[in-house]
Amino acid sequence: MFNIRRFDIEAETAQESSATTTTTATTTPTTPANNILAKLNARLNKNKPQHTPSTASSDNNTSSKDKDSIPNKDTHKHKKDRDATNSKGTNEISYKRSREEEDARVAREEARRNKEQQSGKQRWEKRAKELKDSDLVPNDVRLALKAEAEAKAKAEKEAKKFPFGVPAPVVVAAAPIGGADDEEDEDEDMEDGDEDKDEQDLDQDEDEDQEDDNKDRPVLELDGVERFADEAAADAALAELAALVPLPTFETKEITALEKERAKSMGIPDWLAHPTLIEPSEKSNRPITEPMFGFSDRLIKQCKKAGIEECFAVQTAVIPVLMRARHLGDIRRAPGDLCVSAPTGSGKTLAYVLPIVEILSQRVVTRLRALVVLPTRDLCIQVKETFDTFVKGTDLKIATSTGQNSFAHEQAILVGESHSFPNSPRVLGGHSRVDVLITTPGRLIDHIKSTPNFTLQHLRFLVIDEADRLLNQSFQDWLFHILNAIHPSPERKFLGVDGSESIQVKRDHLGFPIHDAIAPGFLSSFFQLPESDVEDPKALSVQKLLFSATLTRNPAKIASLQLSDPQYVAVQEGGSGQDGEDKAKYTTPAGLTEHMIVCETSEKPLMVLHLLHHLKVRSALCFTKSVESAHRLYKLIQLYEKIRTTTLVASPVAAVESKEEGSGAGKKADKTDKKKKSADKDQDISGSEGESDESSSESEDDDSSSSGSDSDSSSEEEDEDEGESSDVEMEQAVASTDMDIDSTTPTAPTAPMDAIVVAEFSSDLPKSKRASILRAFNNGEIHLLICSDLISRGMDLSPVSTVINYDSPVYMKKYIHRVGRTARAGKTGTAYSLVEMQEARHFKEMITKAGHWEKIGRINVKPQEVKDLVKGYEKALGGLKDVLVSSSRAGKKGNVRRSFK
Ligand SMILES: Nc1ncnc2c1ncn2[C@@H]1O[C@H](COP(=O)(O)OP(=O)(O)OP(=O)(O)O)[C@@H](O)[C@H]1O
């Protein structure tokens, strides 16, 4: 309706315009409609966007207004002649003139726009559009742009609705248009004409006021264009904002009503129920050189050297957020904490290592500014190696504290010898010889409690990797102690001038306490600070970063971390599982192929042999449910391989048969075994060198938790967490001694060409041995590594192509972490789960509950497929008992192998 009206109005406006713009005294029609239209026209001119980016354009506008105002004056001046000029011919002339006038106005407008194009405003708009079109707009900028676009769209809509800027077109519609000929109309016309003039005068006054104001505004010449200085400054500020490196934006998970209800009933906080989601695909990768990462040339160089060209999805999401707050401390507001859940092998370690290295590399004085807490010492060593790669070229110092070395040795590394004696006077700001400490919780607590001058007050980053794993541990109240140590003590120990402090403090020669830069947040613990209106003026600068592939959503556990302004980032495939949650929790790597083999318990070793000999599985990790189980399987496979290879016959069947025939074969095997033992012994001794300083050792075993495997399949996450609680190394003081050498050494040195090289790995191994086995596996010297769950989490063993769940895990989390040792960093890999008949139902339920069932293929191994392996296997089984007894004796002698659970 308005469109039709608009058309009429336009035509009439043209007429009126022609009537009012002509300078001849003969052509102005004076109908009531024309008067109304004249009024509208005036308003239109008033409501036209009057952007005046430069004096020049402002002049243009002014002159345009002047011109527009002349006809109106004329209209008034020649008002008496209007009746006479209401002829068709005259109207045509005035219409033509009006068009010319309009064309001139459009040309002026065009010229003004061209000038504007040169201006900073135009550049900002262009940049804003570019940003808007890219998906790299920070949320605040995006919101601003959105608001701006909405306002613009609304204005345009309004303009369409009311083309003359009149908010009530009804007035126009209601007005009689043309042909009014009675006296009353004439009077109205006269009155309208007066009103019209008044309004024109008012507009003119406003314009003049504006011009007066503008006179006082300083003008600058920028890029050859004159601009008001304040406008130029505003545009420059906008341009600066646009130049800020934008953060990537990601989808935020839309929470369904069901999920909301569920989260609420479970007490899950909003931020945890509402993660920022990132697709775990290559699309989310970004080149490391992108400005949003803010990496220095040095770091980029190190990354490239390490073969890292792009940041993976989790890194793309996390690094810019961390790099945004590049300060080292002494800030008023701590940066928000971050919880990150991303699949195994997706690159979580670099997501914190790279920004920590980059940010800390600005530091001048060495202080302990980053603490990385991990559940096992093998993981600590692995993460240290990663830090070491990227700190090259800086003087940052990285250390581990895992109990690998003596406590005194670690103290000396952390605070220096002079600060580590029990009676060393305290330096209030503490002392540190390292910038980054990577540690297990038990050992950390020991240092917090017993190392003088060890302090966490300068901490900038607290990383809790494998967070859900660690949060299951209440050992020594480790979290409580850490949180206490990063906050100023509630019992203030003010240092009075009279030295009445309760702690022994290092003092200078004048008797003043040496504080060596107490962290701002801790000052109030030691000194009576002046009263301040500002509450807590110096906030702590520590940022807590939690990482896991299966991050807990247990509200109590999350609450125990005392997170501040937290954000939850989740790398996961889109959507939720049937129950709205579990699928999101358990995303497996895209390149992972999963199978299950249902078999009898007694057939499981045979299935392993089938995978090795028929499916040619190599570079495999085989997880068992306990240290004992790992050891037994290791011995069995080793024996099988010995029987097979000592016959020097390639085929396993032929090997077994020929061994059965030849009575001397067993002796021959024994001889070979002895030779191998001697070679293994040499290897072990050399591997142990340099470790004589050990005073403590891990005591906690690696798995064993799942022994209660008949637990309820509907167990909640909490149960699941509890069920996995024992592979965190807590560094209790337990003596480490020699080992059963034979049982820990891969068969590589004496194995014939086609032998399967098998080794075992568990917490029963001495530390040096663990490292050498991992090295050998990484070098491809071990084909099958039979292990406990000690390395089921976090360990990044690059060559793992296959994971075998020899004992299928009872909990989904454990399954996810185990199978996640393969298909890492975008590679492919295969997982086989050997599921006993009686476990099949539970296994299926567990996998189905996690929305994962359709991903698992079922393999039926027929008896004839393993027929060629049976005889050798039975033979090996026959000899196993003796081997286990002798290895157990050797273990007892060495006082290391624990009694099996
Ligand atoms: N941007 C990258 N480019 C190439 N390789 C990468 C990149 N980021 C990480 N990697 C490699 O991917 C592998 C897995 O990374 P990482 O160990 O950090 O995974 P994760 O997510 O911590 O896994 P898990 O949950 O098992 O601990 C490592 O070998 C690492 O070097």
UniProtKB/TrEMBL annotation:
The EC code for this enzyme is: 3.6.4.13
PROSITE patterns reported for this sequence: DEAD_ATP_HELICASE, HELICASE_ATP_BIND_1, HELICASE_CTER
Low complexity bias: start-end ranges: 12-33, 54-63
Coiled-coil positions: none
Where does the record place the Helicase C-terminal domain?
A: 729-874
Q: Which GO terms describe its molecular function?
A: ATP binding; hydrolase activity; RNA binding; RNA helicase activity
Q: What class of enzyme is it?
A: hydrolase
Q: Which SUPFAM superfamilies match?
A: P-loop containing nucleoside triphosphate hydrolases
Every copy of the Helicase ATP-binding domain together lies at 329-569
Region annotation Disordered: residue ranges? 1-131, 178-219, 654-729
What role is this protein assigned? RNA helicase.
The free-text domain remark for this protein reads: The Q motif is unique to and characteristic of the DEAD box family of RNA helicases and controls ATP binding and hydrolysis.
Q: What is this protein called?
A: ATP-dependent RNA helicase
Native organism: Linnemannia exigua
Which gene does this sequence derive from? DBP6
